[in-house]
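ok so dumb question maybe but i'm new to this and my supervisor (M.) told me to 'just get the structure for YbbR domain pair protein' and walked off. so i did the thing. is this what she meant?? sequence i used:
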Amino acid sequence: MFKKLTENWSLKLLSLVFALILWFFVIGERQVEIGFTVPIEYINVPQGMMIANEVPNLVDIRLTGPRTLLVNLSSGDISFSVDLADLKPGLTSFKRLEERLDIPGGLKVTRISPSFVDVRLERVRSKTVPVQVVFSGELAEGYQLDGFRVSPERVEIEGAESEIRDVTEVSTQPVELGGARESFTLMVPLRYQGRYSRLKEEQTVELQVRILPPPPAEIEYMEKGENSQ
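this is what came out, is it supposed to look like this??
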């Protein structure tokens, strides 16, 4: 029996190796499905325009294909871009996003979320608006606010045309007057929270506040002997 087992041992060993190779090949080529989260890149925004709506920055995809292709694949090997070249102002809907994925050959997209992307393009505009100083609190009793000066008096904002159209002023952070007795100068941050616009340059302004002390108390003088009866 042992003799039969050892007969043609080299041929049997070769057959075993071939069978193992075939087994690994079959297992390796088994179809599998794996999910990835891929960043979205918006490219070629037309000059003088900007994206003026909330757009997704990531897309979830599921790919199916041979295990040998997917086992070492990472999100960095997959690119996803939305080309905005030559678009006009307004809303554009991009569908069939799977066609915009750059993936290795032999793989298939089975699911993608979101399944479409809406992009609103608007022209970039700028305008200059006055600075509105906001005060809070009260001066010390008897003291009066004589006036104030802010520099610069106007600032420039820049952004989506529809957003800055209705902006008429930019406010400062509240300036606390509580208990103040003397004039003062300080740098005050501006408060501007545009979604699709921003302050172009100045982030702070110089504020000079003039405070007057209470008027002197009036003293009544009485003629000598006026009250003597």
